[in-house]
Each structure stands twice: as structure tokens, then as C-alpha cells.
Amino acid sequence: MFKQATDKRVAAFFANGLEECEALVVCDLLYRSGIPCDKVALGDNLAVVSSHDVTVVCDRATSDDDFSYDDYDVLFLPGGMPGTTNLGESQELCDAVRAHAAAGRDVAAVCAAPSVLAKLGLLDGRNATSNPNFQDVLAQNGAIVSQDPVVEDGNLITSQGLGTCVELGLALVRRILGEEAAETCKDKIVYMR
């Protein structure tokens, strides 16, 4: 059962073709830690089909009359293809991510999705990582590419892929609730690393 530990909120954006486990692992760790996290479908259909043909039903959609990007403290972009392409083609989402980052609010992305941040110019001169197949996009857009599993540079948090999503989720828990909460979450999931 969800026990809310903070008023801070996270929006995880689900586009058709996403890597569902990248999204759900991070959402799960936030949920376990008491951090409100909405699964937000890009568009008007709550049911989103992943790159592995798994259907996920989201909590809300960007087309909802009462949806506002400003209601969230963290915007999270999962990877996957063509999910990442679909995220990057949403002008509304890209405008919101740019504004969120410019306001000093947290933006997180994993796998291919950091390439969206790079193309928006948000990673220029910043430390970042992504799936190795997309690190050239980061470098071409001025990022200082790291091979670390999770890279936090100010309000931008990037991660390499599904295998690093537990660490990404823990990093977000740590940012929102602190080290003790992250350690408690590690214990709950029997994190062995």
C-alpha cells in the first residue's frame, strides 16, 4: 500500500515504443519510497504499447484537461525505440522539459532518452550518460560523456539503460527524500550491489 512521504511529484512519460521495464523499475522504487509518481501517457490514450509489445495502462495522459507539467517536481523520460523518437517529436513535451530544466527543476532520462535532452541543447557542457549507442548524439551536442551508470549534473540526471535503472531510481529517491530513504529502499528490494 502506498504511504506518501513527500508532496514532491514525479511524472514518468510513456510513449508508444518505450522500454517498459526502464519506466516501471523507476516508478516502482519511487512508489515504494512514498514518492507520488504518475505514469503519464503521451497523447490521449491511457494504454501505451511498449517496444516489446507490452501494454501499460497509465494514470493520466498529457491530453487530460487538468494535466499540467508544472504540477511535477521531476520529469522522467524512459528510453526504448521508437519511444524515445516519439518523446522527441512531441513539441509540447520538449517545450515543457526545456522550461523545467531552465527553472532549475529536475529532469531525468535513461537509455536513448538522454539524446532528447542533448538535441534540446540541455546537455551542452554538462556531464551526462546514455545507452552506448546514443553517446555520440550526446557528444555531438556538447555533452561531457561519462561511462558511469547514473550521472547527476545539477538538475539533470541521466542513466545508461535498463541495467542501471535501479541505481537511477535510488538516485531520484535520494534527491527527493535523502540518503536514509534510499538506504531503506535498497533494503526493501534486497539490493546487493
From TrEMBL:
GO terms for cellular component: cytoplasm. InterPro entries: Class_I_gatase-like, DJ-1, DJ-1/PfpI, Prot/Nucl_acid_deglycase. CDD domains: GATase1_DJ-1. Residues 8-174 form the DJ-1/PfpI domain. NCBIfam families: not_thiJ. This is 4-methyl-5(B-hydroxyethyl)-thiazole monophosphate biosynthesis. It comes from Parafannyhessea umbonata.
